[in-house]
Specification:
It is a single chain. 39% of the residues lie in helices and 24% in strands. The chain has three helices and three strands; from the N terminus they run βαβαβα. It has a three-stranded parallel sheet, with helices on both faces. Strand 1, helix 1 and strand 2 form a beta-alpha-beta unit. The longest helix has 12 residues.
Length: 70
């Protein structure tokens, strides 16, 4: 079975690192990439086509709810 590919989006590097380690413990998940802001996240989504994007909606730069629908 293919792993679920996750993109982590948060401006807090420490959080991304901790979440990446936690997700890495799950055999059916893989961290496809990370982004530190909304613009970088959009680029990574286009380039990596993750199955799931975990995003901090209160992150500065872009409105996560508006920019990552559907």
């Amino acid at each position: 079975m293919a792993k679920i590919r996750v993109l982590l989006v948060d401006d807090n590097l420490s959080f991304r690192q901790r979440m990446g380690r936690l997700l890495g413990l799950q055999p059916d998940l893989e961290v496809a990439g990370e982004a530190a802001d909304g613009l970088e996240a959009i680029e990574r989504v286009r380039a990596l086509s993750p199955d799931v994007v975990l995003i901090d909606f209160r992150m500065s730069g872009l409105d996560g709810r508006r920019n990552f629908r559907g």
